[in-house]
């Protein structure tokens, strides 16, 4: 079964941009596109309480209009794309988390308004990146083509396999090179302990961390022989290096949690910084 890509829209320019990105991704993968708007207010009209009709009816019509506009835009750009549309009186987070089950990817814009208006750094994106059952794409920054690479943040931990699987797939689908980035030390700590670390020879550590990346990449080139891979091992702040790479990348792929060389790769630090400040779309995988 060809699982769908789901995009949340709220009528803002950023969410329509996310819908266009999701449509292009779905078209490349020959996957259906599910466009959804949730127009419930968290905490309001809970339980058996229903909103009054003079509130519900115009909000439902607005929601349906928002979804219809996104669908028309997607179908205009990709006439063969199979689309589904959904307008639901429900809070955004529980609806989108449910839709993430059995979904190829969840896509949201980097900012918005209304009920889906927290789509950057706010409750919706944080909840999705933390709890969604599929990769979450936050569409922000510039969208680059050509030789712009897919950049994968690899720490050698449990999430690395999922990160690389998605990064190789994206690079293959887009015909883009892949940069596999492993950052093995945080220079902020190095500055603090500079005196103690001065006589320390970092070269054996660098060699060991190079092996970590090589082991993580083992077998992937055989699965994706069409993808040009550039392994990069650096001693730096993971957050800083990923943000710098995002300024010239097609997209950045990271896990929602990390360890080892990416000890900062926890939602709210490196992943959160990318969601807020990356110069390109960010794909976050929860593992």
From TrEMBL:
UniProtKB keywords: ATP-binding, Nucleotide-binding
Ranges where the UspA domain occurs: 1-140, 150-286
Name of the protein in its database record: Universal stress protein
GO molecular function annotation: ATP binding
Protein family: Belongs to the universal stress protein A family.
InterPro entries cross-referenced by the UniProt entry: Rossmann-like_a/b/a_fold, Universal_stress_UspA, UspA
SUPFAM superfamilies: Adenine nucleotide alpha hydrolases-like
Keyword ATP-binding assigned: yes
Keyword Repressor: no
Pfam families: Usp (PF00582)
Top-level taxon in the UniProt lineage: Bacteria
């Amino acid at each position: 079964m060809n699982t769908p890509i789901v995009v949340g829209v709220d009528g803002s320019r950023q969410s329509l941009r996310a819908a266009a990105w999701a449509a292009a991704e779905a078209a490349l993968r020959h996957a259906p596109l599910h466009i959804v708007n949730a127009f419930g207010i968290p905490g309001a009209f809970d339980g058996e309480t229903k909103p009054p009709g003079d509130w519900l009816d115009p909000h439902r019509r607005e929601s349906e209009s928002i979804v219809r506009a996104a669908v028309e835009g997607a179908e205009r750009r990709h006439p063969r794309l199979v689309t589904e549309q959904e307008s639901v009186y429900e809070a955004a987070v529980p609806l989108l988390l449910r839709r993430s089950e059995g979904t190829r990817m969840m896509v949201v814009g980097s900012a918005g308004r209304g009920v889906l208006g927290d789509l950057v750094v706010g409750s919706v994106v944080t909840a999705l990146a933390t709890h969604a059952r599929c990769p979450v794409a936050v569409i922000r920054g510039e969208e680059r083509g050509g030789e712009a690479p897919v950049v994968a943040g690899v720490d050698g931990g449990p999430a690395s396999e999922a990160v690389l699987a998605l990064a190789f797939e994206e690079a293959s689908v887009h015909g883009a090179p892949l940069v596999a980035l492993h950052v093995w030390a945080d220079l902020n700590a190095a500055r603090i302990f500079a005196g103690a670390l001065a006589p320390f020879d970092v070269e054996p550590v660098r060699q060991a961390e190079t092996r970590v990346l090589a082991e993580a990449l083992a077998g992937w080139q055989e699965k994706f022989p069409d993808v040009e891979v550039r392994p990069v091992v650096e001693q730096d702040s993971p957050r800083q290096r990923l943000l710098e790479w995002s300024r010239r990348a097609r997209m950045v792929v990271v896990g929602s949690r990390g360890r080892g060389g990416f000890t900062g790769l926890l939602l709210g630090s490196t992943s959160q910084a990318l969601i807020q400040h990356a110069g390109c779309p960010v794909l976050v995988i929860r593992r």
